């Protein structure tokens, strides 16, 4: 078999120790790899590269398209960009796959039957990194959910379930509140689910879903969710399985893939030969499947399960009674190497085949966008104003109009304060003023610009505006509450 080129970064903190252990196991198992070592992380940041990754390292990644990455330390203080976020966006790694499995009774856990895979959307949501300070009091972070972005990750979750023999895909959203953004994710989930009738599907509101997941994880199989919920809940499930040191993560795109442990560089443990290399090792197993070496992946995974059930444990999972020997990082690797070729007798052995492959062959949209007519029906002008009473603002803005494009309502932090607001409502210096055609007809962009000019002329500070559109008559903006 020819060797597959991969890029490898040893990272910071415990990174070099766990990477060394992982690569020793892969080599002993007969993985056919041509390793290109690249430099990333703390030293690179400190040398003045704000992305934490050298230009030469990008070239290697562009060549190999496969990245096995140890955790890095992100320096404290501003000005540094997250290397992970940069890599995910640069290489379009839209799906973050995070299995969390219990190994009871060999690893202590309150949830002995947990076997959950979280598929987290990896590029969008509040992680688009679009934040603004708009007034003295108010800061904003833009939550972006797109139809193609949602469709890709949701389709990925269903394909993953199909290829790995999983029975159900669940979606977590908060669309009772975020009706447009999370509502879109939920709608796309329902549409994609129709293409996989053999796989069960259901959707939960994220808060009650998370509560159920934390108490009854065995009720779930594959769970797909937007970025922020997935980030938080995949750490929770990893810890629930017994240790964050056990959990792997694969960042998948159509052309590139990045494999890593979910934990960080744990500086407090660095250089002591105590860290658990399992998260990175299991990520490397996912990588072997991805690059078409499923037999080696099977061999490594089964040797690792055997090591675990024979009670050879690193500090983080060692428990008197359940464990037999406490070992360091390198001894744990040696123990796995000694067991290569063995199958576990209590834990379920794994078998990977070429079809377990995580790679997606196509992700073009199959959900047709049916919108025929997009119409401009008004504008929300956001003002930095005050201190002052909402009625004073309303009275002043009522005098400003363009044709029948007039002030309809004012909200503060989303709550209606004019007309007929409640005097008790707490107001900041950030006001959303909605102007719409009084005759409910469409308006022109020129009218909106003219309105802005008149509002400025009246002495107001517009800090942003959002156009209000309907799509085939359906409002593309949230209604005002209160
Ligand atoms: P962390 O995950 O590094 O460690 C938290 C704690 O978890 C450790 O103190 C340790 O008790 C335990 N732990 C983690 N990995 C372990 C392992 N393999 N074996 C045994 N115990 C383990 O989180 P942190 O301390 O908040 O972050 C440290 C640094 O890592 C920060 O600079 C952070 O930015 C960075 N980080 C990097 C990545 C990444 O590169 N993907 C991810 C998360 C955090």
Assign the CATH superfamily of the largest domain: Isopropylmalate Dehydrogenase
Per CATH, the architecture of the largest domain is 3-Layer(aba) Sandwich
How much of the polypeptide forms β-strand, as a percent range? 15-25%
The average pLDDT value, as a whole number, equals 94
Per DSSP, the total helix count is: 13
* Poorly predicted sequence stretches spanning 5 or more consecutive residues: none
Please compute the radius of gyration using only Cα atoms: 26 Å
Provide a descriptive summary of the structure in words.
The model has no long low-confidence stretch (mean pLDDT 94). The protein has two domains: 4-356, 3-Layer(aba) Sandwich (Isopropylmalate Dehydrogenase), CATH 3.40.718; 374-475, Alpha-Beta Plaits. α1 (15-28) packs across α9 and α7 (206-215) packs parallel to α8 (227-240). With 482 residues, the protein is α/β, with parallel strands linked by helices. The protein has a ten-stranded mixed β-sheet, with helices on both faces. Strands 17-16-18-15-19-20 form a six-stranded antiparallel β-sheet. Strands 6-7 form a two-stranded antiparallel ribbon. 45% of the residues are buried. The protein starts with a strand and ends in a 7-residue tail after the last strand. The chain has helices at 15-28, 42-46, 55-64, 83-90, 147-163, 181-193, 206-215, 227-240, 278-290, 294-309, 329-338, 390-398, 445-457, and strands at residues 4-9, 33-37, 66-69, 95-101, 115-121, 131-133, 139-141, 168-173, 200-205, 222-225, 248-252, 257-261, 312-314, 325-327, 374-384, 405-412, 415-418, 430-437, 461-471, 474-475.
């Amino acid at each position: 078999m020819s060797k597959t080129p991969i890029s490898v970064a040893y990272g910071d903190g415990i990174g070099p120790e766990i990477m060394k252990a992982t690569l020793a196991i892969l080599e002993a198992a007969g993985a056919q790899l041509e390793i290109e070592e690249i430099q990333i992380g703390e030293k690179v940041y400190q040398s003045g590269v704000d992305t934490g990754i050298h230009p030469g390292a990008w070239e290697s990644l562009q060549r190999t398209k496969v990245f096995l990455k140890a955790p890095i330390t992100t320096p404290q203080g501003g000005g540094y960009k997250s290397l992970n976020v940069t890599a995910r966006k640069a290489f379009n790694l839209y799906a973050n796959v995070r299995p969390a499995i219990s190994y009871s009774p060999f690893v202590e856990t309150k949830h002995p039957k947990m076997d959950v895979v979280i598929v987290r959307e990896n590029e969008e949501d509040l992680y688009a990194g679009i934040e603004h300070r708009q007034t003295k009091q108010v800061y904003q972070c833009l939550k972006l959910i797109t139809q193609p972005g949602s469709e890709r990750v949701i389709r990925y979750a269903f394909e993953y379930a199909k290829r790995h023999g999983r029975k159900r895909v669940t979606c977590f959203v908060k669309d009772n509140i975020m009706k447009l953004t999370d509502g879109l994710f939920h709608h796309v989930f329902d549409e994609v689910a129709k293409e996989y009738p053999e796989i069960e599907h259901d959707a939960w509101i994220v808060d009650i879903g998370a509560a159920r997941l934390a108490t009854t994880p065995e009720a779930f199989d594959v769970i797909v969710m937007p970025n922020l919920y997935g980030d938080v809940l995949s750490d929770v499930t990893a810890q629930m399985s017994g240790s964050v040191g056990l959990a792997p993560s694969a960042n998948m795109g159509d052309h590139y893939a990045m494999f890593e442990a979910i934990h960080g560089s744990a500086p407090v443990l660095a250089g002591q030969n105590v860290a658990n290399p399992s998260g990175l090792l299991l990520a490397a197993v996912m990588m072997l499947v991805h690059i078409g070496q499923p037999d080696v992946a099977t061999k490594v995974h089964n040797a690792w399960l055997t090591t675990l059930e024979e009670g050879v444990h690193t500090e983080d999972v060692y428990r008197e009674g359940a464990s037999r020997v406490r070992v360091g990082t390198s001894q744990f690797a040696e123990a796995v190497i000694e067991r290569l070729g063995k199958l576990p007798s209590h834990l379920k052995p794994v078998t990977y085949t070429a079809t377990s492959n995580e790679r997606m062959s196509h992700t073009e949209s199959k959900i047709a966008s049916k919108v025929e007519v997009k119409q401009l029906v008004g504008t929300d002008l956001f003002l930095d104003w005050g201190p002052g009473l909402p009625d004073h603002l309303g009275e002043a803005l009522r005098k400003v109009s363009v044709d029948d494009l007039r002030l309809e309502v004012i909200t503060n932090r989303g709550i209606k304060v004019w007309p007929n607001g409640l005097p008790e409502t707490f107001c900041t210096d950030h006001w959303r003023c909605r102007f719409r055609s009084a005759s409910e007809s469409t308006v022109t962009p020129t009218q909106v610009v003219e309105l802005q000019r008149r509002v400025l002329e009246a002495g107001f500070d517009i800090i942003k505006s959002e156009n209000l559109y309907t799509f085939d008559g359906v409002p593309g903006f949230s209604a005002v509450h209160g």
